[in-house]
Amino acid sequence: MLFRYCCGLLALLLSLPLSAQPLFDSHLHYSAEDARHFDPLAIVQWLDKNMIPYAAVTGTPAVHVSKLYQAVPERIVPLLSIYRQRRDKSTWTKDETVIPYLKKELERGHWGGIGELHLFAADRHSQVFKEVIALASARQLPLLIHADPAVIDKLYEIAPKQRVIWAHASTFPYPDLVADYLQRYPHLSVDVSMRDRRIAPDGVIDDDWYELFVMYPDRFMIGVDTYSTSRWRSFDFAVRAIRHWLAQLPEDVAQQLAFVNAAKFYKKPLSLKANTSF
Ligand SMILES: [Zn+2]
After folding, report:
1. Quick one: signal sequence residues (predicted)?
2. Is the pLDDT of residue 274 over 60?
């Protein structure tokens, strides 16, 4: 039986202890191998069990994310993967067939963003990357990007207003560097998925990360990043680790990272409907 959300306004929810507060997971994968083991209902049950009313989900190939979205459209932000198969991850920047594929998929109309794109500094001049940025900008879709800092510089040279989520707080996840980029690029947001051990070594939040979150409380999002089927199997544990360091932040900052920032970014309601059974 699915979890029943019986709370009213967000204010009410936010008065709950953080361990009981809703999370917006901004970085999930639901790919072919995951779909072989877990149907959309199993995924929704995981989200319910962990009080995650909303999630942004990508996957390869895209069809599985579409199915998950169709099962609970109000709860899933489907992100269009540019990979049709796993190996595309390392070749897509040179693959011109990506663009007609994306155009065709985007015609379906339900996609809430494009990504996750993986690329290194050396790939930043890729013509395919340029065209992906143009597609996203024209449709006002955000990009989820796992990339080196130089890629972000290149992207904002091309499209200064493009909304971007920089996955895992960059490939160089140092608070000073992240702060510099947040200051430079107002349309850049950061997800800190898979960075729990850096943020809170031995479970205690690091001073530099603490200051970074307090300085830019409206620019960060959390996520589990289910990059493999085994990651899905340890989903509950991963969520607990995130909640553990969130609870060490000032309450209002923690609420922004946990839920509010992603809800605003993806235009989801900040309040959960009374007596809604998802
Ligand atoms: Zn990922």
Report:
1. 1-20
2. no
